[in-house]
């Protein structure tokens, strides 16, 4: 018995495996890693090349965890700057962009959940986790990579006659840009409403992709409302526009020479923007660009989902229709269970918002679409308890319900 007791004691006090940080996979981003084995903690900053967008995204895997032990993360903001003319940063980005109240983590890279609220001390945010497995993924928010998008699209289209797994284009880096194309039944395209939904023009804004995912899942579901849209509309959904920066773990926003949402111009720089513009122009030429939704994330202090638009670019009909869509979306999202904070008061862009404000997608669409086109950006809050894959998907499904109600009110194309 004594030997058994000593053996058990020996195992109980044996040193834990060293912690390791792995960032060798799609979407990963981390830098300046320091591991303290004594406190079982990891100090780090977001990775990413500042010339390819704000360095606020972080995502990596921790190996060597003893299941049930407490792991502490110490997050510092990036000190990276760029002085390139027109560059993304002229001084370090405020660390608040990298510091959600809660870290996101997953034991399998599929199911994501929040940590407890972090504690900020000066310019360092501290998060504690108690993983149940020997490795754990941690991230700024729930990751959604181009690889995940391709698999999700294939899976949802596999047994659905009304859905097609498409490819918008190939990126500058040669990556495919996957998309859903949905229309059901024999109605000709000319008699269908045209709907365009896109997300992730800024690579770090991962919540927007999950809203698009939720919308697509709802659209391909069994409800009568979803079926009505499929039989009366042609719907295009691109869950990740900036595939290169999402895949490589860069922030994307304010990337050089400008980011995707500053690229809707006469000569677009990015392949994804050029391809999306071509599709949108085709719908406009057919007088059936009915709804264009661009999904984003706002600032860390924004407490609700909200729409962004610019009435100064709208004619009277477009303004009335935009207001009606916002009203219906607010009704649906604000009454969701669990509660999703939503504002019914849109915010406005303009020359003071950004020098390239007219080259932002929703503004370009408003200016160049049909007189009846709804062109809106939905900002997806991230610094809140509802900023989970479930919360984002709920918003996507509620957008679907609002869309169906809105389209039924419009003049049919029969």
Q: Classify the fold: give the CATH topology of the largest domain.
A: Aminopeptidase
Question: How does the overall form come out from the CA principal axes?
Answer: globular
| Portion in beta strands | 15-25%
Q: What is the overall pLDDT average?
A: 94
Distance between the termini: 86 Å
Helix/strand layout:
Layout: H1 2-13, E1 20-22, E2 31-36, E3 41-45, E4 59-63, E5 71-76, E6 102-106, E7 113-117, E8 119-121, E9 124-129, E10 135-139, H2 146-157, E11 163-170, E12 176-182, E13 193-199, H3 206-219, H4 224-232, E14 233-238, H5 243-248, H6 271-285, E15 289-296, E16 306-309, H7 316-334, E17 347-348, H8 361-368, E18 374-379, H9 389-409
Parallel strand pairs: 3-5, 13-14, 13-15, 15-18, 16-17
Antiparallel strand pairs: 1-4, 2-3, 4-10, 5-9, 6-7, 6-10, 8-9, 11-12, 12-14, 16-18
Helix pairs in contact: 3-9, 4-9, 7-9
Q: Short summary of the structure?
A:
The chain is of the alpha/beta class. It has helices at residues 2-13, 146-157, 206-219, 224-232, 243-248, 271-285, 316-334, 361-368, 389-409; strands spanning 20-22, 31-36, 41-45, 59-63, 71-76, 102-106, 113-117, 119-121, 124-129, 135-139, 163-170, 176-182, 193-199, 233-238, 289-296, 306-309, 347-348, 374-379. The longest helix has 21 residues, at 389-409.
Explain the overall architecture.
The chain is of the alpha/beta class. It folds into two domains: 15-139, Immunoglobulin-like, CATH 2.60.40.3120; 146-409, Aminopeptidase. It is 28% helix and 23% strand. It has nine helices and 18 strands. The chain has helices spanning 2-13, 146-157, 206-219, 224-232, 243-248, 271-285, 316-334, 361-368, 389-409, and strands at residues 20-22, 31-36, 41-45, 59-63, 71-76, 102-106, 113-117, 119-121, 124-129, 135-139, 163-170, 176-182, 193-199, 233-238, 289-296, 306-309, 347-348, 374-379. The chain has an eight-stranded mixed beta sheet, sandwiched between helices. Strands 1-4-10-6-7 form a five-stranded antiparallel beta sheet, with no helix packed on it. A five-stranded mixed beta sheet has the order 2-3-5-9-8, with no helix packed on it. Strand 6 and strand 7 (113-117) form a beta hairpin. Helix 3 (206-219) crosses helix 9 (389-409), helix 4 packs across helix 9 and helix 7 crosses helix 9 (389-409). The longest helix is centred in the last third of the chain and has 21 residues, at 389-409. The protein is globular. The mean pLDDT is 94.
